Amino acid sequence: MIANAAHIPAYRQFPEDFEIVGVADVNAEAAETTAARHGIPHSFTDAAEMLQVCRPDVVSVCVPNCMHKEYTLLALSYGANVLCEKPLAFTKKDAEEMFAAAKKQGKLLMACQSMRYTPDRLAAKALIEARGGEHFYYTELSRIRRRGIPYWGAFHIKKVSGGGAVVDIGVHMLDAAIWLTGNTEVASVCGTTQKNHASELGDLAKSGALTGKVDIIKRFNPDDMDVEDFGAGTVKFKNGAVMNFKISWASNQPEASDIRLVGKDFGIDLPSCTLYEGETDTQFDGIPSDYPNERFPGHFYIVKNLRDVLKNGATPAVLPAETIAAATILEAFYRSAELGREVKVEELD
Predict the structure, then answer these.
(1) Which segments of the chain does DSSP mark as H helices, in order?
(2) What is the pLDDT of residues 65-118, one digit of tens each?
(3) 31 to each of 18, 41, 260, how far by Cα in Å?
(4) Third-level CATH fold of 2-115+299-315
């Protein structure tokens, strides 16, 4: 879904820079259908064969979470730059190893953390930078789906996905908050998980397939779901900042995709684009003039940056420290939920 609806259309926006030469999927029907739909000359059921035959400069890794490391390292070993779907990894060690491998190969590795590129978050980032930054000592975020468990893939199976709502949609919010605040040095995490609505499913769009289309939908058995549909936690950073979050695929709350940043000099509320200073509330512009009208607009920002990095030496939009921080939070969160206590980062090493 994400390759067809987001990655391929994003690359196609820059035909003078990117030519899509091959697609690989262990499911031959999925590979062949994708290639035919988009006019891609080669399809494979083996990623190594694709890399050997096509020798691509850039690879998008769009496989299930548990395979991100394997296929990223494979692509890097063939000399490709890699854009990997989120989460790049869900352990601190794996994220560090993947970036170390990219550095050794002299290649770019970037996590596709596309949800920092919503209009309100782009506007907030621009405002923060225009004011010279801010120490946000408190952050809270919510990403709530009323009924949006992804039933069209293997997101609900831990051995494939690594976790549930928090690792799926929560990592987008965590990344956005890390990016906005600049807080990357994690000290500890305390978290809890719940599973209450495995048999209550919404439609495809509500479960993350925003186009409402998925080529191959597997039979969903709620008894197979061994991950959380709700998670909440607290992150403490080494600079004293604190972040609280709640994430759900399904829960009896209002839909939400909210971030609130609290600093000494000012605070920001999103998506309302409200700036708080003392007793004054001010609205700021939340719609960039060039914002693309696409289902997955964030991928266009990511691919545009990828082009600029490779052609002009621009700074990667998603930095390794940010991605490692997100992986650290995920690992510590799930360990905390399992142990029933706060987990310090030192324990992960």
Answers:
(1) 2, 8-12, 28-38, 47-54, 68-77, 92-105, 119-130, 158-161, 165, 171-181, 297-312, 320-339
(2) 999 999 999 999 999 999 999 999 999 999 999 999 999 999 999 999 999 999
(3) 19, 11, 41
(4) Rossmann fold (3.40.50)
